[in-house]
Amino acid sequence: MAGSSEYTGVDFYDMDSLLSEEERAVRDTVRQWVTEALIPVIGPAYIEGRFPKELIAGMAELGLFGANLPEEYGCAGLNNVAYGLIMQELERGDSGIRSFASVQGALVMYPIHAFGSEEQKQYWLPRLASGEEIGCFGLTEPDFGSNPGGMITTARETADGWVLNGTKMWITNGSQATVAIVWAKTGAIDDPKSVRGFIVPTSTPGFTGKDQHGKLSLRASDTSELHLQDVHVPKDALLPHSGGMKSPLKCLTQARYGIAWGGVGAAMACYDEARRYAMNRVMFDRPIAATQLQQERLAEMLTEITKGQLLSLQLGRLKDRGTMTPQQVSLAKRNNVNMACEVAREARRLLGANGILIEYHSMRHLANLESVYTYEGTHDMHSLILGQEITGIAAY
Amino acid sequence: MKIAVCIRRVPDTTAKITIAGGGTAIDPAGVKFVINPYDEFAVEAAIALKEAAGAGETVTIALGDDSVQETIRTTLAMGIDRAVHLQGTGSADGLATARVLADHLRGGGYDLILFGKLAVDDYGQQVGPMVAELLELPCATAITALEVADGSATVEREIEGGTEVATCPLPAVLTCDKGLNTPRLPGLKGIMAAKKKPLEVVPVEAAAGQATIVSLALPPERPAGRIVGEGAAAVPALIEALTSEAKVL
Ligand SMILES: Cc1cc2nc3c(=O)[nH]c(=O)nc-3n(C[C@H](O)[C@H](O)[C@H](O)COP(=O)(O)OP(=O)(O)OC[C@H]3O[C@@H](n4cnc5c(N)ncnc54)[C@H](O)[C@@H]3O)c2cc1C
Questions:
Q1: Which of A108, A237, A267, B199 sits at a 20 to 30 Å CA gap from A158?
Q2: How big, in percent rounded to 5, are the helix, strand and coil portions of chain B?
Q3: DSSP 3-state assignment of A269?
Q4: Within 13 Å of residue A223, how many CA atoms lie on the same side as its CB?
Q5: So where are chain B's domains?
């Protein structure tokens, strides 16, 4: 397994033999793009706390946005395993860049495809696929995180459209998005069934997006607060087939599916870095890789990564078969992201002092993964979802 | 303009190679195979020429067993229009391979026939020029720049201490070197489109070559590198190592 300096992934169980030629080709393309375009810019961008916008065009050109949506809307029409592999490879680079693609594809394009009218799909999907429009997804509010059904953002129907009022927080891409999918209550504030989705161009008067500062995690991604003050939108801003909290939750299932793969990608990057470092770093006159403690560390990482790979691949096959359940997604998101946090921490520790530097990747991944652990349903909330699945009793 | 690109499937340069039982071939088990990196420059050149002209046809041609079809599809995913798989066993003898290719290319109406300057698996550097010879076409090897205008090709070649500019009329055979261009990555739509593009399979019989491989040997194992420290603090240790161990100072 030792070898050249180029990243070649981690494949202890010959997972490649379970992938189709196309799936491998997609994975290889994204892997190479990450090596050539993403890795060289990510360190400085992370330190500066800026999303590397210069990557958008390249991602769009490869067709990474909404890649599992149909070709008739300008998308690549890939299956879900290939889509998952894209997320894995992007997060091998950085969770923030994967977040950008997740939001654009699973949280903006997916709801337009699933709940939009034919006109909305034809107008928005090709523009979002090409990166001409950048989207964000406004669900979370300052006082409603794990319990988004409690939201207090409202949409009131008028003669010619809708008026939206409220505040959204922790919104990825919020400040640079040209369009927001905003979730709001159209009925009583205690009625989560009245939640509907709206396509809101961010240039609409009354809409403001402001970056949240001081993040110690996901620094190469913009996270913003959205204010909607008497935002008037026409009737056709409504996603006609959205209705109730199950609509945004369906979007989250899509994004969480990708994150289950992404976590594995981040873990693979950290393991790869740790293995190479252990082979080269000489202490007490021999490589630290020759010590039992570091070998145990590496063995544990490889074991957990391999388990995570099998989880995400089978989840993808279930999704392609049309039988995947949200609870199965919860299990994979919960396991794989937590696993990635552990692997990143152990990798960082194996690297000693170098492990705290931006020149290496493990600590950046470690810091990023704390956000990933929290968003798209916290680790705890997925425990509770599984708990409810097992016992039939909701504990949240 | 009609452009042929002849490609070969080779082990990935990052792959860990072992030698198979007989000692004259590598063991393909567990090895990732890719398009020969120099052939990628040829593929990119063909696609770019067609794009610039706004018309024409690009064709990938590959000799090999059925596994080469995956490599062919990589070129279709990058943007080549169609492909021909010359189904048969490749030979260690460059002339035998060149004959099969030339037989197919002859009468194909190609204006340009592009190769990589060498295949990284055997470093033969024979097939391109031999095909040119068999077809009685002009040939330029290891080109690093290419312009096509008014029925002729102008190429640059890196030579010792300088650059050579050469020109020849079309049709011509060119072999491509690093520096010619930056090969594009196959996009996802390209990957999906590749399986719908025409891939013609033509069984071929390669004559037994006269040159044969007697044995293969791996280079001696390189000792692992080591990190002596970080930044300026590492300089004394590095000087010490270069002076007393490597004895290069
Ligand atoms: C970088 C980043 C990007 C984000 N991007 C987006 C985005 O694009 N769009 C969007 O809408 N949102 C986004 N979010 C918001 C994210 O989804 C929420 O932060 C998340 O749902 C958790 O909500 P909260 O932060 O309010 O935590 P809280 O819900 O307040 O949770 C705090 C703690 O309490 C625990 N907890 C909560 N309820 C229970 C319970 N019933 N039982 C036991 N424990 C419980 C949680 O697990 C957690 O540990 C993003 C967040 C981050 C950090």
A1: A108
A2: 30, 30, 45
A3: helix
A4: 21
A5: 2-203, 220-249
Identify each DSSP E strand in A146-218 by its residue range: 154-157, 161-172, 179-185, 195-201, 207-211
The boundaries of the domain holding residue A56 are: 15-129
Which residues partner with A200 through β-bridges?
Answer: A180
Question: Is the domain defined by B2-203 classed in CATH 1.20.58.1000?
Answer: no
Domain membership of residue A7 (yes or no) is no
Domain count, chain A: 3
- Residue A109 and residue A128 in contact, taking contact as beta carbons nearer than 8 Å: yes
Which of B33, B30, B57 lies closest to B46 in space, CA to CA? B57
- The 10s digit of each residue's pLDDT in A353-370 is 999 999 999 999 999 999
Asked whether A137 lines ligand 1 (CB < 6 A), one says yes
Segment B83-132, tens digit of pLDDT: 999 999 877 789 999 999 999 999 999 999 999 999 998 898 999 999 99
Instruction: Say if CB A158 and CB A232 are below 8 A apart.
Output: yes
Identify whether B171 is preceded by a cis peptide bond (ω within 30 of 0): yes
Rounded to a whole number of angstroms, the distance from the CA of B74 to the nearest CA of chain A is 8
**Cβ A251 vs Cβ A110: under 8 Å:** yes
- Whether residues A123 and A144 fall in one domain: no
Indicate which of B191, B197, B218, B230 best probes the interface with A, i.e. most A CBs within 10 Å of its own CB: B191
Encoded tokens for B96? 């035998």
Alpha helix ranges (H) inside A281-378 = 292-321, 326-350, 362-374
Interfacial residues of A (vs B; Cβ cutoff 8 Å): 2-4, 6, 8, 14, 16, 21-22, 25-26, 29, 32-33, 61-64, 67, 71, 76-78, 82, 86, 279-282, 287, 353-354
For the record, the structure tokens of B121 come out as 């698996």
- Alpha helix locations (H) across B166-233? 188-194
- Per-residue pLDDT, averaged over B208-214, amounts to 83
Which of A12, A178, A22 has its CA nearest to residue A86?
A: A22
Residue A3 scores a pLDDT above 70: no
Q: Give me ligand 1 centre to Cα A374, in Å.
A: 6
Which amino acid makes up residue B13?
A: T
Which helix (H) or strand (E) element contains residue B135?
helix B127-135
| CB-count burial class (<10 Å; 0-12, 13-18, 19+) for A39 | middle
B218 close to A (CB below 8 A): no
Token digits for B25?
């071939």
With beta carbons less than 8 A apart as the criterion, state whether A91 and A162 touch.
no
Contact with chain A for residue B236, Cβ under 8 A = no
- Residues A47 and A115 reside in one and the same domain: yes
- Chain B residues whose beta carbon lies within 8 Å of the beta carbon of residue A83: none
Q: Ligand 1 mean position to A22 CA, how many Å?
A: 36
Interface probe, candidates A21, A32, A79, chain B, greatest B C-beta count within 10 A: A21
> In which band, very low, low, confident or very high, does the pLDDT at A4 lie, cut at 50, 70 and 90?
low
Tokens linked to B8? 């070969």
Distance between CA atoms of residues B78 and B185, nearest Å: 7
Given A157, A346, A376, A389, which residue is catalytic? A376
Residue A222 in domain: yes
> What CA–CA distance (Å, rounded) separates B160 from A370?
55
The first and second tokens of residue B31, run together, are 């090895």
